[in-house]
Amino acid sequence: MQDFNEQTHLAEALGRLEGASDPRLREVVAALTRHLFAFVQEVEPSEEEWLQGITFLTEVGQKCDEVRQEYILLSDILGVTMLVDYLNHGRAEGGTESSVLGPFYRAGAPACANGASMARESGGEPVLVAGRVFDSSGRPIAGAKLDVWQTAPNGMYEGQDPAQPPFNLRGVFSTDDDGRYAIRTVKPVSYSIPDDGPAGRLLRALGRHSYRPAHIHFIVSAEGYEPVITQLFTDDDECLDSDAVFGVKESLVIHYERAQDGDGSRVSYDFHLTEAA
Ligand code: BEZ
Ligand code: FE
User: Fold this and answer.
1) Which 8-state DSSP code applies to residue 46?
2) Which domains, ranges and CATH numbers included, belong to the chain?
3) Which of 63, 78, 105, 193 gets mutated to test ligand 1 (max ligand atoms within 8 A of its CB)?
4) Whose CA is nearest to atom 7 of ligand 1?
């Protein structure tokens, strides 16, 4: 039996992991233990603060159900989701940069012909988003899929708002033989992430807002290529530098050009996919 102090206690806690049969689990829990110990030593929480932390994490769990994932939201607002995304996808040379998936993706959106509108009700400023999908050597990819979704002009996704028609502002587009796509939609608006739970409370306590700058979500995929989950952000949005979930990257900011014929705006954007590993 050794003296109990910060060093012997850490060594003892790490030593207890030696029986783990999965080496990756052992590595992960060892790192977690080392970092948690360092965190607690830096912060030196009072017992009240420790209990406050436990209560907060309990409330995060209690807010979760089949559709609401408060832990992911917490990870988003702390910047962890974008860090995990960067470590997994951020170093592929030549590909379109990625961003968070978010909780509002819905699989099974209707297939849309090139040039068709995914706005299934009226309202909003009409936009034509068009461009091409290329491989990393600049060759166009035919038959690439673009799974697209965004908020309505009221700042709500179709799944959050029973007043919207099913699959409003969602659609799956495919590139033609020249790798071209064309999406008719409406200009997206900035909106608040769900802020009625502990993650929202934490944002307010930190003096942060809960808004995301206006964006359109994309999953771009093609056989033989790594799919990219990303978003295109409107360049005139006030929240561009303070996105609640840190999702903005410079290469993903786009300009809405007023159409010559006065009918809404146009956006031009090319995607680049890297070959599957
Ligand atoms: C979104 O862009 O849909 C989103 C991303 C993270 C948290 C909440 C919403
Ligand atoms: Fe979004």
Assistant:
1) -
2) 6-77 (no CATH), 95-273 (2.60.130.10)
3) 193
4) 102
User: Distance from CA of residue 154 to its chain's centroid?
Assistant: 20
Query: Using CA atoms, how far apart are residues 124 and 52, in angstroms rounded to an integer?
Result: 44
Phi, psi for 42 (deg, rounded to 5): -70, -45
Q: What does the DSSP 8-state code read for residue 277? A: -
- CB 212 near ligand 1, within 6 Å: yes
Whether the per-residue pLDDT at 259 is higher than 90: the answer is no
Nearest CA to ligand 1 atom 6: 102
pLDDT digits (tens, 9 = 90+) for 173-202: 999 999 999 999 999 999 999 999 999 999
Residue of minimum CA distance from atom 5 in ligand 1: 102
Q: What angle do CA 134, 167, 251 make, to 5 degrees?
A: 35
Look at residue 156 and tell me whether its pLDDT is greater than 80. Answer: yes
**Residue 7 carries which side chain, given as an amino acid letter?**
Q
CA Rg, the chain, in Å?
Answer: 23
Would you state the structure tokens that stand for residue 250, as one six-digit string? 């410079």
Determine if ligand 1 sits within 6 Å of the CB of residue 159.
no
Q: Where are the alpha helices (DSSP H) in 103-217?
A: 198-205
d(CA 150, CA 277): 30
| Residue ID of nearest Cα to ligand 1 atom 1 | 102
Contacts of 40 (CB under 8 A, 6+ apart): none
